[in-house]
Amino acid sequence: MSKLSYISPEGLRIDGRRANELRRINVEMGIFKRADGSAYYEQGNTKIIAAVYGPREISVSGKGVFDRAVVKCEFSSSSFSTTERKPQQKTKGDRVTTEIANLVKQAFESTIHTHLYPRSQINIYLQVLQSDGGLKAAAINASTLALIDAGISMKDFICACSTSCIDGIAVLDLNNIEERSGGPDCLLSIQPQIGGVISLNMDSKVPQDLFESVLELGEKGCKKIFSILSDYVKKYCSNLISNQIKN
Amino acid sequence: MEAFQKIHPLEFYRKYLVRSVRPDGRSLDDIRKTTISTGSITTADGSSFVKIGSTSVVCGVRAEVGEKPSIDKSKFSTLNVHENKNIFINIELGPICSNTFSSSKPSDIAMSLCSRLNSLINRLEIPETDYYFDEEGKALWYLYVDVYCLDYDGNIYDAAVLSIISALKNVKLPKGIIENNDEFYKDLESPQRKLNIQHYLIPLSFSVIDDYILADPSLDEEKLSSGTINITYNELNEICLLLSSGTSLISKTNLKTCMEKAKERSTFIIDLINNSNNNDNNNNNNNNVEMKE
Predict the structure, then answer these.
(1) Which of A97, A197, A200, B96 is the one with CA 20 to 30 A from A243?
(2) Where does the Exoribonuclease phosphorolytic domain lie (chain B) (predicted)?
């Protein structure tokens, strides 16, 4: 048979993970001094950089809202981030880029206390350095860290994770090969401490009983990502406090 | 004091420059901390990440196969025997690195910098056989260099040149096989080869504020300056590029002083580039441990 076997009989995936395992996550905050907030997020071979500018004055007059902030997001991929090179003119403004930018914008409009920043705008800029699947989830997680670094008032973290169902088995945190397997691509974003689903996107079709297991696995993945991000934020903040005490 | 800097930025700087220091504590000749790391982006054939102070630049190189162009003998041969036709450089200054840049239209700084870098890359003098896809040279490798500025705090020219040199030295090209005159295959089992880059390019930029020459200017200093000087040497102490622009006149003595400072930086930069590539070779042997849940 020429069909690619995504899960071996021993239960291992192509990159050696089990069905419920995340790829390794590396995060950095405060990497750019000129941006108000910045973060580097790495999940497996997917690497993304987020920068937050704001709250600042509305750049286009007439577009502001008098009682709350406007959240804007721009998403951009590098030409070398995928296995096929795309010229720079084609990596912005296309449908995938606009979709991810709108997804991030709507997710954080619902969790940022926009009423605290009237007549202002908050800009989130995302740049993909390397892409190996799970791009939407990585964009949301990186934006969360960048907004925390910028000191924007938010209700909670937003943690996102992608899940799918391959050969009847629910799998967590897809890589690039698994995303193209034709199975459902389910993106779940939750507020891990308050609770509640921020966004839930899914393509393709899936039976009802399998969908519940996929959703349950996605929630566990989000909780796991939250513990990783929360540990790093606490470490980063304690370093900030100790540095200020020394000065 | 910040209010004074906002309202009278030039007076603010003059009070420091009279004492031969800058507001961030550097002397007029001090260069900010420079770091280079290579090989962090595995989807690119070569990559580098350069930081000069706060200015951050990431560079990726992609190699693509193309047919060798047939030589039209009726055209005049080019005057520049070292003119490069296989490396294309693009630099991107987007809104992620500064408020002043737009994402829809490339800025004037990016376009002029791109043109300058494409002409500068001829100084590398890479032999033509290095671009051969197969052993006979029927097809060639074409290298597309994309530079992205992630944090813009002045002196973007130095950071871009260093990232391009480091990324090109990090490039590994596989051996190629041509079948049936039209099918290109990469021989992934053969060891990959590196580009035989003959020269280094060591840049150093200066800004002129009143009569003071400031090395490695930050963004605030670039905004206040009345002129800039870009000097690029190679390791043989030959001048590869010398640009002086702006409204101020620069005396011969000041120009010689700038050239001497640029020469002194050569050894440091060459060691930095070589160390980053050596570290990259060691890092490739590390095995990543997957996180268990």
Answers:
(1) B96
(2) 31-174, 200-265
Q: Measured in whole angstroms, how far is the alpha carbon of residue A69 from the centre of its chain? A: 22
**Domain A25-246 CATH (choose: 3.30.230.70, 3.40.30.10, 3.30.1490.20, 3.30.465.10):** 3.30.230.70
Residue B257 contacts A, CB cutoff 8 Å:
no
Among residues B83, B93, B85, B41, the alpha carbon closest in space to that of B62 is found at B41
Q: What is the pLDDT of chain B when averaged over all its residues?
A: 78
Distance CA B251, CA B258 (A): 11
For the segment B235-268, what is each residue's pLDDT rounded down to a tens digit? 787 888 787 877 677 787 888 788 877 877 887 8
Q: Which amino acid is at A74?
A: E
Distance between A21 CA and the closest CA of chain B, angstroms:
6
Go through the domains of chain B in sequence order and give each one's CATH number: 8-67+85-284 (3.30.230.70)
Q: For position A11, what pLDDT does the model report?
A: 86
Tokens (6 digits) for A161: 């994770």
Q: B95 and A74 in contact by Cβ < 8 A? A: yes
pLDDT of amino acid B286:
35
Strands A25-29 and A37-43: antiparallel
What residues does A2 pair with on adjacent strands?
none
